[in-house]
Design a protein that fits this description.
The protein is α/β, with parallel strands linked by helices and 353 residues long. It has eleven helices and twelve strands. The strands form two sheets. It has a seven-stranded mixed sheet, sandwiched between helices. A five-stranded mixed sheet has the order 8-9-12-11-10. One of its GO terms (cellular component) is cytoplasm.
Length: 353
């Protein structure tokens, strides 16, 4: 289906055959055990509900998808590909769960961690000398820095490093890292992929069959398998990703326009795509906390990518990088009307003393 537009692939891939009395959707397979002699054998090794989701996300990203129990489980499975003592290069501004994973492994001597400034491509590539893996997000969370994926991938490969891109913010509808040379793509499917804040799930998409088989082995051995029900829900959410993303992005751009000159803001950050905007509130942590506690529509919550608009001050988390401004508030734009979201946010900003 390589000739089809991604919006069509999201709707048509991973379906049962078009035959009489076949359901349009792959049913939820609630099975731990299968009759012997086939490919599945046991519920930790596979499930048709996972496979349907994997077919769709793999087709969208351009590789083979392996679904896992969470985004962190996906991260862990990928980092397990690094040999003991291997060097991992990662941006200083990354999802805190990823940084905590890396720091935990570094403290145990399992990896050597090199944190870099993603905005300095030459320095990132130089840091890859002798490295086993370059891991980065684009846009970064929550600084929203954008990387030149092709350039970083080429430079890292020249040093012999495996390249992993967390594509959670952009989704495969806005960028395809595998097509730009990356080896692996990671998603927290909890976020925009599923889009309804009702499940936890992760995925890795591999360009190379050998890496895919290694990741399947990690999933089977580690047991970080998704539930059939969550895989079903994630696929249902993925079917509508295109329309959700278009709508939320349009609202995000409108919010950026309306907020750009607000006197209570030092900065508005938006990479031009994705559903995430970051604002830096004048007055630091106290003013930002006042904002997140005084809106009617915006929900103070830590996740993102859902149909509802959420926001939070990221430095409230102790693990967040100290180079992130204390007053930075990350906005996850949902599907409410742009006027209502803007009015609610501006009213709250205006009320900050």
């Amino acid at each position: 289906m390589s000739h089809l537009h991604p919006e069509t692939v999201a709707v048509t891939a991973g379906r049962p055959a078009h035959e009489s009395d076949q359901p349009l959707n792959v049913p939820i397979h609630l099975a731990s055990t299968y009759v012997a002699g086939g490919e599945l054998e046991y519920g930790r090794y596979g499930n048709p509900s996972w496979a349907a989701f994997e077919d769709v996300l793999g087709a969208l990203e351009g590789g083979r998808c392996i679904s896992l129990a969470s985004g962190i489980a996906a991260t862990s499975a990928v980092l397990d590909l690094v040999a003991p003592g291997g060097i991992v290069v990662a941006p200083r501004h990354s999802y805190t769960g990823t940084i905590l994973q890396l720091e935990d492994r570094a403290a145990a001597g399992r990896v050597v961690l090199r944190l870099v400034d993603l905005t300095d491509a030459d320095a990132v590539i130089a840091a890859c000398e002798g490295a086993a893996m370059l891991w980065f997000e684009s846009p970064t969370n929550p600084a929203l820095e954008v990387a030149d994926i092709a350039a970083l991938t080429s430079g890292a490969h020249a040093h012999g490093a495996l390249v992993v891109v967390d594509n959670t913010f952009a989704t495969p509808l806005r960028q395809k890292p595998l097509a730009q040379g990356a080896d692996l793509v990671v998603h927290s499917a909890t976020k925009a992929i599923s889009g309804h804040s009702d499940l936890i799930m992760g995925a890795v998409i591999a360009a190379d069959a050998a890496h895919a088989e290694q990741l399947v082995a990690r999933r089977s051995l580690g047991g970080a398998v998704p539930s059939a029900f969550e895989a079903f829900l994630a696929l249902r959410g993925l079917r509508t990703l295109a329309v959700r993303l278009d709508r939320a992005e349009a609202t995000a751009r409108e919010l950026v326009k309306r907020l750009s000159d607000h006197p209570r803001l030092e900065q508005v950050r938006y990479p031009g795509f994705s559903t995430v905007v970051s604002i830096v509130v004048r007055g630091g942590a106290e003013a930002a906390d006042a904002l997140t506690g005084s809106t009617k529509l915006w929900i103070h919550a830590t996740s993102l990518g859902g149909v509802e608009s959420t926001f939070e001050r990221r430095r409230r988390w102790a693990a967040e990088a100290d180079t992130i401004p204390a007053g930075l508030v990350r906005l996850s734009v949902g599907l409410e009307h742009a006027d209502d979201l803007a009015d609610d946010l501006i009213r709250a900003l205006d009320a900050i003393g």
